[in-house]
């Protein structure tokens, strides 16, 4: 292991952390989001309760059917929440952070599929008990005699399919494009379920008030999608006219794309954030990929650094200069605004692989010096350290610490143990930690940081695991 460190500047509290216009992102915003989702669920249950009579719960069939109805309403509500979470609403992206939104989305997705499946099962059993029929014949009756139940069955099938491809063991074997486009079917499932809810849901078919509430909620979410996923990106892409200028190969399988545009400062891209990029040539126009800026942006220039992961990212090195780029964003809260304003501005960064890209931009732009920032850069081989020479120059110029942790897992099985982290960074407990890299690295580093008594509020993670 070699070490590059800098000397000569005293640590300074970063102005960006205390004088920012935007509120500091953090757990408070996450708790507020979870509380809002829970409150919505309570309101949905209250709608069901207001339209439920005591007589309908007087026997087993009534109880089972009522349970099926409330689970169906909760599944429909969570489906609406899932879509809203992915609408790229700025207040959520910049305060809660894309990584947290993704985790909430993933957890709620599992609940949604489970609730929807239980809804269908309980309704079939409840109706079968009421009609004194067997569940198989009652299923046939529901599918053939009740309006829109076939569409609801199709919606459930789509949700189960999406749930299967979202499982970690499955999605890690899929190309990003396949995973992404399969998830677009959630909109079709939502439309099919909406029709079923109005046709068969007693809470809506007999109440104009409830129908108005439900329609308003769907219209609002649809409007958020149109504005933030379509209208704003199209407007910004046309206005800022971003184009590819050249490509630079950084290491094996890693290339940097240099982009130019106009009035880019108005986008207010912060180091550490990412955008979704769409390159308008014959091979890439239909694909949209999230990549972080890998250098501090200017008013006319941006840079992203991409690793060949075996999907379309590998062909970006063949883009021609002048290729027009459309984009969404900026997104994410993995920025200097997450620094604890009481912590003195000390930062530890931990990166692996292409996870260096957002940290490279932060490393360049953080205030302070003289060891106020330290970067641990993990790789199995020196050839797997893209942008290292740039980082070394920044460390030398700014007095930051840079530690390349190079070696195989067999030779150094636990480079992020609490003891090793304390040895490399003795004042570890006083620092905010920015962590980005492959899932295995993130897991190991978080475990070591927690054992080293680093407060959870000071560990900031950006995940590249879709």
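^ Assign residues to that structure.
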């Amino acid at each position: 292991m070699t070490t590059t460190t800098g000397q000569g500047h005293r640590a300074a509290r970063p102005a960006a952390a205390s004088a920012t216009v935007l509120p500091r992102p953090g757990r408070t915003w996450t708790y507020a989001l979870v509380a809002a989702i829970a409150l919505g669920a309570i309101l949905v249950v209250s709608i069901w309760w207001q339209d439920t009579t005591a007589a309908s719960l007087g026997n087993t069939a009534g109880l089972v059917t009522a349970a099926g109805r409330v689970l169906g309403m909760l599944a429909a509500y969570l489906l609406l929440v899932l879509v809203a979470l992915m609408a790229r609403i700025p207040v959520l992206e910049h305060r809660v952070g894309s990584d947290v939104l993704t985790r909430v989305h993933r957890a709620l997705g599992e609940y949604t599929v489970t609730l929807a499946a239980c809804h269908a099962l309980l309704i079939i059993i409840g109706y079968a008990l009421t009609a004194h029929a067997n569940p198989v014949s009652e299923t046939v009756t529901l599918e053939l005699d009740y309006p829109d139940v076939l569409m609801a069955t199709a919606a459930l099938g789509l949700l189960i399919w999406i749930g299967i491809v979202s499982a970690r063991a499955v999605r890690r074997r899929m190309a990003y494009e396949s995973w992404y486009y399969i998830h677009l079917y959630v909109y079709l499932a939502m439309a099919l379920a909406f029709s079923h809810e109005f046709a068969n849901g007693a809470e809506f078919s007999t109440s104009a008030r409830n129908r108005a509430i439900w329609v308003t909620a769907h219209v609002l979410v649809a409007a958020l999608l149109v504005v933030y996923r379509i209208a704003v990106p199209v407007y910004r892409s046309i206005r800022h006219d971003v184009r590819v200028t050249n490509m630079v190969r950084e290491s094996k399988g890693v290339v940097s794309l240099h982009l130019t545009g106009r009035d880019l400062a108005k986008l207010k891209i912060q180091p550490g954030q990412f955008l979704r990029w769409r390159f308008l040539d014959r091979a890439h126009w239909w694909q949209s990929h999230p990549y972080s800026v890998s250098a501090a942006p200017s008013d006319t220039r941006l840079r992203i650094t991409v690793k060949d992961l075996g999907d379309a990212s590998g062909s970006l090195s063949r883009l021609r200069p002048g290729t027009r780029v459309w984009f969404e964003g900026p997104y994410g809260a993995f920025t200097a605004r997450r620094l604890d304003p009481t912590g003195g501005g000390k930062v530890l960064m931990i990166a692996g692989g292409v996870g260096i890209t957002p940290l490279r931009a932060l490393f360049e732009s953080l205030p302070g010096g003289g060891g106020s920032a330290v970067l641990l850069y993990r790789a199995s081989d020196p050839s797997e350290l893209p942008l290292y020479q740039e980082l070394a120059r920044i460390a030398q110029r700014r007095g930051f610490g840079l530690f390349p942790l190079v070696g195989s897992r067999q030779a150094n099985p636990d480079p992020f143990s609490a003891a090793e982290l304390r040895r490399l960074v003795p004042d570890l407990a006083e620092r905010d930690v920015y962590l980005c890299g492959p899932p295995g690295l993130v897991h190991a580093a978080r475990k070591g940081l927690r054992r080293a008594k680093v407060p959870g509020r000071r560990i900031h993670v950006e995940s590249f695991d879709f």
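The mean pLDDT is 85.
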